[in-house]
Predict the 3D structure of the following.
Amino acid sequence: MWLAGMAVNSTSQLFKSLLVTSELIDGQNRGRLASSSLYDICTRVHDCILKSGMDQNPYVANKLMRVYIRCGKVQDARHVFDKLVKKNVFNWTTMIGGYAEHGRPADAIEVYNQMRQEGGRPNEVTYLSILKACACPVGLKWGKEIHAHISHGGFRSDVPVQTALVNMYAKSGSIKDARLVFDEMAERNVITWNVMIGGLAQHGFGQEAFSLFLQMQEEGFVPDSTTYLSILTATACSSAGALGWVKEVHRHAVKAGFDSDMRVCNALVHVYSKSGSVDDARLVFEGMLDRDVISWSAMIGGLAQNGCGHEAFSLFLKMQREGVIPNVTTYHGCGQEAFSLFLRMRREGVVPDAITYMSILNASASTGALGWVKEVHRQAVQAGLDSDVRVGNALVHMYCKTGSISDARLMFDGMVERDVITWTAMISGLAQNECGQEAFSLFLQMQREGFIPVATTYASILNVCTSTGLAMVEEI
DNA sequence: CTAGGGTTAG
């Protein structure tokens, strides 16, 4: 702020402003200023740089580019970059890194290729940046080319570059190539192990990730919190038989003192729920000293998915009493909680137990589940999360499940964004509530609007057809 | 002087 009003007209002041600005963004002050005011400062400093002609100084230009990138203004950085007549390796690398940070592999590759055409020599940092940009499915074809450049360019024994290669292959879906590079490495560090373990975990190879977790320790490496966060992912732990090694990883984490690490505990809560042990999840959750919205959401979602609807809802209320504000994920978890609860009610029939159950959820036994749904809905609106398509879907589904088809339709009609799940939820809700005609016209409408029905959509609409005659079946 | 590999909920 003070910078914005400051007279910046001498070269030394210019440098000072630029450095202060970049420190503001890079250093510990980050976040204390709104990015809009940082951007404002940056453009003012930029103006002065242009007036003094310092924009052709590669060092100054690089600082300026960094600040723009940190403000999220990659296009402005690109403008500075393009105007720069003589670019050094820092400028090229910064530009590539900027695109990498903002998930723009095609632009990063364009700059990288331009660099090579103009005779620029990428160094290890350039490779780290371009590999980061290519660490996504669309980046694989480019990533392979860069792999060849790296092998020819003499970076075969550079641990960070090779680690970045492993990461690139893992993130772009080619886990086999990732493992190949990993196995070929003569030297590795903790990050290398974390990348490989995380890659296997993300691809659902939990058992393999776990054996690497043991192997790294045999080789003298000490797992850090990232190791635990990498291995304890839902995809790695939801397969049958995962619970055994998850508990083993948990024991290691406790022994190493990571049981006081909130993020590790969050991952444990989630993963225990996913591997079917809600009791272990609850134990971890209860033992936590600090909890954030992720902790609460993980626990609520875990309870919900394991048929502990009542507990999930009371935890949802408790979370808010403790001042933690639910986000989209929390509501999503609640939606699932409601589903499983109501599905369970249906399975069990209307037994007094279920009504008693609902009366705990809601003060009024007569409104039962619907009141509960409305309460969640009200809070979602209050939080401004009802416009989220996932929350909307959950609410449509919940209203249908509680038999309030009019509320479901109201929700459905009011949604600004719908996906195939929205349509299917509404159609099956109508179908199950004997509104076959309405379900069918919605089925036609969804296709007019360009949505392609999925198997569940057909299942719902075919159910309608069996009860209302065959005329519709022919149309389908 | 400047660029920098890995990170939990859905």
Q: What stands out?
A: Residues 328-348 of chain A form the longest helix (21 residues). Residues 433-476 of chain A form one domain.
